[in-house]
Structure formats: C-alpha cells, structure tokens
Amino acid sequence: MNSYELFISLRYLRARRKQIFVSVITFISIIGILLGVATLIIVLAVMNGFETDLRNKILGVNAHVVLMEYGKALNNQGEVTRAIKEVDGVTEAVPFIYGQAMLKSDAMAMGVIVKGVDARKTSQILSIGRMQAGQMSALSEGPLLSPEPEQGELSPIILGKELAKNLSLRLHDTVSMISPTGIPSPMGLVPRIKKYYIAGIFDSGFYEYDSTLVFLSLRDSQIFFGMGNLVTCI
C-alpha cells in the first residue's frame, strides 16, 4: 500500500468529532465487507471439499477409463491389456465383467449391477471405501462348502450395505442370483439361478453404489454369464 492509499484509509478511519458519523459508516462498511468475503471463502471451501469427496467416491468404484468392444465381448483381452499398459500415463489395466442380474433373498428380490473382478489386481485401481464386514480379498479365496449338502459349493459375493439392508442379508448368509438371459432347455429358456454366500459388505458412502452394486470374482462371473474366457471391459 503506497502513501496515498494509506492517507485515504486513515482519513476515513480517524475522523474528527464533527465527522464521527462518517467514521461509524466506515466501520460498518468494513465489517459488512469482512463478513461477505468470509462467507464467500467458507462456501467455496465447503463446495470444493464436497466436489473432491464426491469425485473420489465415484472414481473409487469406477476406473478412470473403461475400454470395451461395441456390441460384443472382448476375446483378445490379454493382447489388448498389454497394449494398454504400454501407453504413457497408464498405471494399471485389468479386465473385468460387467453385467446385470437379479439378487433374491428370502425377504425380496432386487435388480443389481454385477462386476466380475480379479480382487488381487483390482485393489490397485479401485477403492470401494470401507468394508463394513468381511474382506474384498475373499473373492480370490474360492468357493466354500455349504453346510447344506444339496447346495454343494458356494462362491463368494461382495455387496453394498444398502443392498444388504434391503434384502435383510448379513455376512455369511446365502443369496440367489438370477440371470436375465436364461438357459435353453426343452421347455424353452430357463432362468439361470446360482447361490452365493455373502463374503463381504462394503460401504462406499455413495447410495447408488451401495444399493445396486455387487462384486464377484472374474472366473465366477464368467461362469454365471456363460462367457467362457471372455470379458466385457478393461
């Protein structure tokens, strides 16, 4: 601040007795500007924090870039994945399955988004938030023998806390997943139904993900959707 600006400031702040009313107005103006600027800074800080938190939650469940082949599955994912990893700036590339199904418990049934992932590699890309129960690594541990002999082995599944709440499911409960495509039979298309055990419940902090998203291992999802060794995305 140069001498001229300092002179003007002191002139209005140090008013004589006859100009005391001008000094009061000056102080009121300063306080008003102070409060306005402080409010603006606080609002901008809150909005920036909200935007950052929202972006981190969205990118925690979704990769920055998803590559897929239009109208069909990828049958050369190994070659494509290696080519993607050689692109400058790419830190990791992992094939996965993306599909839709219906999850059914004794309480009710709901439509879900199914992601089939390699839990060991996907942890380097995705961060689904806090695990409310169980561990994401359970997907790589393989199926467990069901206590009910007629069910045989049950593969693990991870689902969001809101979905678990809506279906009245807890850790280690069993749940049925129904594919919308079905299996050809002499009686026509029969829905593909497979039972899983709840190996984990996650809390991403984002209601849409917590209420609709489930994770399977890559191999289990390929079996469920009848895709062989194919994947839908990288």
Describe this structure in words.
The protein has two domains: 3-60; 67-224, no CATH class. 36% of the residues lie in helices and 28% in strands. The chain is built from seven helices and eight strands, in the order αααββαβββαββαβα. The longest helix has 42 residues, at 20-61.
Q: What's the topology here?
A:
Elements: H1 3-13, H2 20-61, H3 77-85, E1 97-104, E2 109-117, H4 119-122, E3 130-134, E4 144-145, E5 153-160, H5 161-166, E6 174-185, E7 188-203, H6 207-212, E8 213-217, H7 218-224
Parallel strand pairs: 2-8, 5-7
Antiparallel strand pairs: 1-2, 1-6, 3-7, 4-5, 5-8, 6-7
Short characterization:
With 234 residues, the protein is of the alpha+beta class.
How would you describe this structure in keywords?
234 residues; alpha+beta; 2 domains; 6-stranded mixed beta barrel; 7 helices
Number of strands: 8
What integer value in Å does the Rg equal?
29 Å
Distance between the termini: 58 Å
Strand fraction band?
Answer: 25-35%
Strands ordered across the widest β-sheet: 1-2-8-5-7-6
Assembly state here?
Answer: single chain
The largest sheet is: 6 strands, mixed, barrel
Structural class: alpha+beta
Mean pLDDT: 80
Q: Helices and strands, in N-to-C order?
A: HHHEEHEEEHEEHEH
Helix percent band = 25-40%
What is the number of independent domains? 2
